[in-house]
Prior knowledge:
Bound molecules: NADPH dihydro-nicotinamide-adenine-dinucleotide phosphate
Radius of gyration: 21 Å
Helix content: 25-40%
Amino acid sequence: MVNVLFAAGGHRWRQYERPLREALARAGVKAKPSPDLDPGAADYVIYAPNPEFRDFRRCPHAKAVMSLWAGVEEILANSTLTQPLTRMVDSGLTEGMVEWVVGHVLRHHLGMDSHIVNPDHIWNFDPPPLARDRRVAILGLGELGSACARALAALNFGVMGWSRRPKRIDGVTCLQGRDGLKRILASADTLVLLLPLTPATQNLLDARTMALLPDGVILLNPGRGGLIDDEALLVALDAGRIAHATLDVFREEPLPNGHPFWKHPGVTVTPHQASETRPGSASDLIAENIRRCEANEPMLHLVDRKAGY
Ligand code: NDP
């Protein structure tokens, strides 16, 4: 029997208790998941940052910590974490992100705002170009970025993507390195940020890189707030160089009331809800990783601490 400490916040236990028990049974793992387990007896820790649990030294025997979140920069910043860390890859999380990204790309592609609010009853609009004539650039071609790239390519958008290591995705132009970044930024009609926040990606979109974007570009950021220099973004929005920014993630969350993003006409704020981990599908990964670790097989989606994701 393995002891699994659920240290992801009491409110989440209600959502996870049943799917987790069922997934562990399906995986053939004899395990006791509980939020009330003595941390000193935990073999595994299921985790999302929360004020109730911040000290991993309380779990000296834990073989792994399993994040319920895909983005792990906050957990990696916790110096008490010495155990191997896995991150969340969940089909439900991926589907949700594809829906958010495709929805917001289509909003601007089709000029939907002009019809949703049309107080002067304007009748004559130029038709939008076809998707085949619009280029979407995605920074980050991991689990989420590559799924969004495939979905947009299936709609005929011209899709380009940027990653650290070389990638091959049918119908998507994949680039790497500083030159690749320059090329991709220079030709984006819509730019989507789906990078993790690491020392290498912090402030990636600053005044210098924003200057490479074509005038009138649309920016979508469901990645992390720290990828963008906020001051530089406000300057680019005021100058009309960036036509609109739809931001889901911020340096400080919830976004403070007085923050200029709330009232800027060129900004849409969505409250970090682009996509959520779904307990049903996420529990399968957790159960599979416990099964693997108990069988001395490599766990899936281990975080590379050096790379920071
Ligand atoms: P992955 O780790 O699967 O993918 C990350 C991608 O970014 C990879 O393609 C990676 O390249 C690339 N990358 C990392 N560092 C660099 C770099 N220095 N230069 C170029 N490319 C780089 O992550 P996911 O796709 O699962 O998630 C991406 C992010 O989305 C998460 O880290 C999180 O911050 C955010 N997120 C936001 C949510 C929301 O609701 N707003 C929900 C879930 C996640 P390579 O392929 O070569 O490794």
